[in-house]
């Protein structure tokens, strides 16, 4: 990156980071008890618990889940060289849903339990489901050369695994409510344990993605050119698919199917700066964090004291954004 | 006498189960420009890809007499640069970043570009007159301008052998002439250039011509030789004729 580009990237990163901090701070103020809890947090133990154990981890968790989805979206679009690729379009979300549904049905646990072991178990189930779904998509598409075939395979895998998840849920009606909440996407039940899992996965996924980001740059010139540059494409592809599945799995396991953040975040970044994938990956994750934090605040504030599932808001806002991109067509950040 | 920079012996390639190259034997002299010509489907691009190691092939490819099977992927990338036909590129990457990708074979995995890398990229971008757009994204450039950036990317590798598939696509006549001068400059520095060209008139400016048809090399000779001219005319069903004009060779449609 030249100096000018580097400067722009860091400036945007700083702005997004500040927005994340601001969003988390505002998140500690918003809730059914309003500012009262915050004002009394120093004297009243219940108020302190509301701010410290409910609002703060929820806001930090929403930010982490958004960051994971933004990161996964940037990786998916780079890896599959398709601006419409997002983690969910490749079936990983449905795979994660099936994983969670199977785990819930087998162990009969509450999907929003906050115990460490349960969270780790659900994350593992979602992770395994996401990896298997992406593998299945790649297998059906016979590689990543034909993007249309790839997206079609992703849609098919998504539908089939989604149907299987529904079947599992129907066979065990006691997990129906939990699964419904999972499918709509919600940040309501993120505790400190979920928060730690997501931030831990985010740091690992970000470091790996930044480490191999130059290969994503080379892949924009086509597979043959990237190969002619002596890059270990097969190994890097495996690593990136693991990052994609790990990020999606971790986010989906904790917050359910939050829609469109993974698709919208990289596009928003590209419409603001032209940079290498190192910048796109970092900025998309920050942008994802800001987006989900904003949606979380709206979900809490719009109908307070009632709450909207955050996934419904991101679907409406993200869907609107996608339609606008398609309407705008060509141009920076447009759907090409 | 100069040795061969790159050679292929009994090279067979199958694509989608169909044989495309049938035992090609060809050698490219070091520091020379060789153009590969032939009708559509002759296997020109396939040969170039197989020589670059981008396609699985049966047979032997040697780089300066050394079997490429015994050369590491990275060393091979440092010694052979490849510019593909209709090379795709993201509209979002900036010209500078695209050209810098050419330095990847020389850089350590996580290392930032060195001062030498930056100097090489600047030289490559200036050589293709793309330096002024270094801060622009590819999406803001025309087809010909993009092609010059992609050429700069291939030049930035600073390889001993430069393989180019249809490098003149989208270039206007003045920039085609610039490309010719660039190739001459490279061969003067002892770089070996092999290019697949559809423009026979341009190909006739090369040192040597490889004429291909139906997956085989039917002729390999100097561009100025009458025998080469006859071979070119023959593979194009005598629909073109090669004539001398002001000391150069031109291909004209035959009536």
What does this structure look like?
The complex is a heterodimer of chains A (336) and B (255). With 336 residues, chain A is mostly helical. Chain A is 76% helix and 0% strand. Chain A has helices at 3-27, 35-40, 45-79, 92-107, 116-141, 147-171, 176-184, 192-211, 213-219, 223-228, 233-255, 261-272, 277-301, 310-328. In chain A, helix 3 (45-79) packs parallel to helix 8, helix 3 (45-79) runs antiparallel to helix 11 and helix 5 (116-141) packs across helix 6. Chain B has a single domain (4-87, 159-253), classed as 3-Layer(aba) Sandwich (Rossmann fold), CATH 3.40.50.300. In chain B, 31% of the residues lie in helices and 30% in strands. Chain B has helices at residues 44-52, 73-79, 95-101, 115-127, 143-155, 173-188, 200-203, 226-235, and strands at 4-15, 18-29, 33-37, 58-63, 66-67, 80-83, 161-165, 192-196, 208-213, 216-222, 240-245, 248-253. In chain B, strands 6-7-8-3-9-10 form a 6-stranded mixed beta sheet, with helices on both faces. In chain B, helix 3 runs parallel beside helix 5. Chain B is globular, with a radius of gyration of 18 Å. Chain B starts with a strand and ends with a strand. The model of chain B has no long low-confidence stretch (mean pLDDT 91). The chains are: A mainly alpha (336), B alpha/beta (255). The interface between A and B is medium-sized, with 27 and 39 residues.
Layout of strands and helices, then pairs:
The complex is a heterodimer of chains A (336) and B (255).
Chain A: H1 3-27, H2 35-40, H3 45-79, H4 92-107, H5 116-141, H6 147-171, H7 176-184, H8 192-211, H9 213-219, H10 223-228, H11 233-255, H12 261-272, H13 277-301, H14 310-328
Chain B: E1 4-15, E2 18-29, E3 33-37, H1 44-52, E4 58-63, E5 66-67, H2 73-79, E6 80-83, H3 95-101, H4 115-127, H5 143-155, E7 161-165, H6 173-188, E8 192-196, H7 200-203, E9 208-213, E10 216-222, H8 226-235, E11 240-245, E12 248-253
Parallel strand pairs in B: 3-8, 3-9, 6-7, 7-8
Antiparallel strand pairs in B: 1-2, 1-4, 4-5, 9-10, 11-12
């Amino acid at each position: 990156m030249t100096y000018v580009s580097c400067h722009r990237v860091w400036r945007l990163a700083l702005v997004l980071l500040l927005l994340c901090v601001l969003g988390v701070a505002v998140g500690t103020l918003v809730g059914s008890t309003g500012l009262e809890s915050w004002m009394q947090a120093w004297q009243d133990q219940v108020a302190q618990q509301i701010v410290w154990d409910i609002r703060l981890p929820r806001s930090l968790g929403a930010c982490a889940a958004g960051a994971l989805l933004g990161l996964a979206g940037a990786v998916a679009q780079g890896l599959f060289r398709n601006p419409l690729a997002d983690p969910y379009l490749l079936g990983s979300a449905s795979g994660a849903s099936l994983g969670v549904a199977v785990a819930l049905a087998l162990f009969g646990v509450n999907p929003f339990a906050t115990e460490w072991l349960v969270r780790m178990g659900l994350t593992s189930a979602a992770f395994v489901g996401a990896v298997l779904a992406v593998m299945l998509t790649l297998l059906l598409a016979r590689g990543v050369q034909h993007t249309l075939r790839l997206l079609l395979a992703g849609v098919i895998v998504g539908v089939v695994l989604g149907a299987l998840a529904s079947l599992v849920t129907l066979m065990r009606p006691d997990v129906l409510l939990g699964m419904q909440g999972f499918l709509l996407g919600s940040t309501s039940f993120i505790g400190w344990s979920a928060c730690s899992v997501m931030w831990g996965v985010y740091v690992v996924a970000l470091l790996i993605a930044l480490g191999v980001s130059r290969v994503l740059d080379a892949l924009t010139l086509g597979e043959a050119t990237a190969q002619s540059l002596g890059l270990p494409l097969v190994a890097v592809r495996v690593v990136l698919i693991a990052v994609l599945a790990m990020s999606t799995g971790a986010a989906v396991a904790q917050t359910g199917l939050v829609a469109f953040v993974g698709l919208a975040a990289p596009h928003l970044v590209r419409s603001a700066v032209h940079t290498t994938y190192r910048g796109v990956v970092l900025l998309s994750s920050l942008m994802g964090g800001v987006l989900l934090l904003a949606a979380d605040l709206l979900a809490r504030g719009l109908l307070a004291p009632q709450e909207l599932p955050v996934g419904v808001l991101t679907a409406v806002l993200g869907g609107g954004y996608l339609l606008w991109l398609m309407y705008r067509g060509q141009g920076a950040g447009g759907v090409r | 006498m100069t040795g061969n920079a790159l050679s292929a012996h009994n090279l067979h390639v199958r694509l989608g189960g169909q044989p495309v190259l049938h035992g090609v034997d060809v050698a490219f002299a070091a520091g020379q420009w060789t153009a590969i010509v032939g009708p559509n489907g002759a296997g020109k691009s396939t040969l170039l890809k197989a020589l670059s190691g981008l396609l699985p092939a049966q047979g032997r490819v040697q780089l300066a007499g050394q079997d490429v099977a015994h050369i590491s992927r990275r060393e091979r990338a440092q010694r052979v640069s490849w510019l593909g036909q209709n090379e795709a590129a993201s509209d979002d990457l900036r010209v500078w970043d695209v050209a810098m990708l050419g330095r990847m074979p020389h850089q350590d995995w996580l290392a930032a570009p060195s001062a030498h890398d930056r100097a090489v990229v600047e030289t490559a971008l200036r050589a293709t007159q793309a330096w002024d757009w270094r801060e622009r994204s590819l999406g803001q450039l025309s087809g010909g301008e993009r092609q010059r950036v992609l050429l700069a990317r291939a030049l930035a590798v600073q390889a001993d052998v430069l393989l180019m598939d249809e490098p003149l696509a989208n270039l206007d006549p003045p920039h085609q002439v610039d490309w010719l001068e660039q190739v001459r400059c490279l061969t003067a520095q002892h770089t070996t250039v092999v290019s697949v060209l559809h423009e026979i008139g341009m190909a006739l400016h090369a040192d040597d011509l490889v004429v291909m048809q139906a997956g085989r090399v039917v002729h390999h000779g100097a561009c100025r030789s009458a025998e080469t001219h006859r071979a070119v005319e023959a593979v194009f069903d005598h629909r073109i004729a090669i004539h001398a004009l002001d000391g150069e060779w031109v291909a004209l449609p035959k009536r």
